[in-house]
Design goal:
The complex is a heterodimer of chains A (125) and B (359). Chain A is of the alpha/beta class and 125 residues long. Chain A is built from two helices and six strands, in the order E-H-E-E-E-E-H-E. Chain A is 18% helix and 30% strand. In chain B, strand 4 and strand 5 form a beta hairpin. In chain B, helix 2 runs antiparallel to helix 3. Chain B has a three-stranded antiparallel sheet. A three-stranded antiparallel sheet of chain B has the order 6-7-8. Chain B has a two-stranded antiparallel ribbon with strand order 4-5. Chain B folds into two domains: 42 residues, no CATH class; 307 residues, Cytochrome-c3 Hydrogenase, chain B (Orthogonal Bundle). The chains are: A alpha/beta (125), B alpha+beta (359). At the A-B interface, strand 2 and helix 2 of A face strand 6, strand 7, strand 8 and helix 10 of B.
């Protein structure tokens, strides 16, 4: 089994400072990903150093403006534009801001909808 | 300062089988800035976790890419198994490692062929793809599929390989080695190849790290980032050292891939010698409740499957960070300063897989 992974909850206001600290400590940006949980959105920032992950989670409502970390990590723009285009969240200060044209989707913000499921139990119960 | 003009590159281009668009800002014939665009064929496959049960979803995860398909399925099931605390039969981990390295071999041979073709070496292209056929034949013989293998499942693998077939595979790979030597010799030593690739599209080590480069793009710049070093699957029981080159140019990225084919053969050989007897799968009940970042090394670099479940049959989230997606910012950087005529070769040198990026 691999080592346990810890995701530390932080506030939206700490996103940039944590990114700056991660960069200072020699971490590379691995990914930024979003998950819709009910009416909330979880965004997880993941950094790596020597194959050890450093992960931070913010939980926000749809109307919250998320600061970009592209001032610290240039490559963050791909993840931040993706989050905007798929979920409709607003990220401010992206170094390369596609303003909603990063993904050409037929439906606007397609991941901001949760598909209704039928039943919860598995076939292998 | 010369007048700047913007030249569109793609989304349809002879060196790109998939759509990627770059706005190249030129001064004379030198690229001074690049704005990348993807998203022409975004499929939203991750969203299907809400419609497909987690055990069925492995077939969708495998279809994210038509080249590194097996490793996508392996990464996905490894993540589920971590959350559920499953100890997969050891033989299954060896089989996964063997098929994973076969996937790397066929991907690198495919890329070497395309790379040669992009520079006008058509006979080298055909030779690379001829050798790739042997790899695909073995994948088909052992899994039933050349492109989509469909053998990974939560709790193990669906098919076993007989000892006789394993011996035959090993003999086949050993027989291929001298032909691979001939092929890689062209890429590594031919004067016109060197002239075309040396010093072109340089990505410095520090830039590669900060920009998040992975795979041969990172290792060609001197970074020993190879997730196989973490020992997933059976790799923890295998002697393995990542291939690293230091010049950061197109030649270095090409050399990493060329040399990695021999590393893959070595890993497969060790696996075949060490593979234990026993079952290849286990009964799995229930559903994952938790979250995990599953990481493996695809031919193009580190892939991450983030999996979040809540104990129900459908996952809450499956998010895939593919190597090509994270290699886009490094591509923007390494294109700056290159001649317009070199752009196709430089773009191809990161081995972009838009199918993966547009999962």
């Amino acid at each position: 089994m691999m080592a346990a992974q810890v995701i530390t909850p932080i506030g939206v206001g700490d996103v940039v400072s944590k990114a700056g600290q991660a960069k200072k400590d020699g971490y590379r940006l691995v990914q930024i990903g979003c998950t819709k949980i009910g009416d909330d959105f979880e965004i997880i920032y993941v950094y790596d150093k020597d194959f050890t992950l450093l992960s931070y989670r913010i939980t926000v409502k749809e109307d919250v403006v998320i600061p970009s970390i592209s001032s610290e990590y240039f490559g963050a723009f791909v993840y931040e534009n993706e989050i905007h285009d798929l979920y409709g969240l607003h990220v401010s200060g992206i170094n390369i801001d596609f303003k909603g044209t990063f993904y050409k989707t037929a439906i606007k913000h397609p991941f901001n909808v949760t598909i209704t499921k039928e039943g919860d139990s598995c076939q292998n119960k | 300062m010369s007048k700047q003009i913007t030249v569109p590159f793609g989304p349809q281009h002879p060196v790109l089988p998939e759509p990627l668009h770059l706005d190249l800002v030129l001064e004379d014939e030198t690229v001074v800035d690049v704005i990348p665009s993807i998203g022409y064929v975004h499929r939203g496959l991750e969203k299907l976790v809400e419609k497909r049960e987690y055990t069925e979803y492995v077939f969708i995860a495998e279809r994210i890419c038509g080249i590194c398909s097996f490793i996508h399925s392996q990464t996905y099931v490894q993540g589920i198994e971590q959350i559920m605390g499953l100890e997969v039969p050891e033989r299954a981990t060896y089989l996964r490692t063997i098929w994973g390295e076969y996937s790397r071999l066929h991907s690198h041979l495919l890329w070497l062929g395309l790379f040669a073709d992009s520079m006008g070496f058509e006979s080298v292209f055909m030779n690379a793809w001829r050798l790739r056929e042997h790899i695909l034949d073995d994948l088909e013989a052992t899994t039933g599929g050349r492109v989509i293998q469909g053998v990974c499942k939560v709790g193990g693998v669906r098919k076993d390989i007989t000892p006789e077939k394993l011996d035959e595979m090993l003999k086949g790979l050993r027989g291929m080695e001298h032909e691979l030597n001939d092929l890689t010799n062209v890429f590594l030593n031919d004067s016109s190849m060197k002239h075309r690739l040396r010093g072109v599209g340089v990505l410095k080590k520090e830039d590669a790290y900060v920009l998040g480069a992975v795979g041969p793009t990172a290792r060609g710049s001197g970074l020993a980032i190879d997730i196989r070093s973490t020992g997933y699957g059976a790799l923890g029981k295998i002697n393995f050292k990542p291939v690293v080159e230091y010049d950061g140019d197109c030649y270095a990225r090409c050399a990493v891939r060329a040399k990695e084919m021999f590393t893959s053969i070595d890993i497969i050989e060790q696996c075949i010698k060490k593979i234990p007897d026993g079952p290849v799968d286990m009964k799995v009940t229930g559903a994952p409740d938790g979250e995990y970042f599953s990481r493996t090394e695809q031919p193009r670099g580190e892939v991450i499957h983030y999996i979040k479940g809540n104990g129900k049959k459908n996952l809450v989230r499956h998010r895939v960070r593919t190597p090509t997606f994270t290699n886009i910012p490094p591509l923007v950087t390494l294109l700056k300063g290159v001649d317009l005529a070199d752009v196709p070769v430089v773009v191809l040198s990161i081995d972009p897989c838009i199918g993966c990026a547009e999962r």
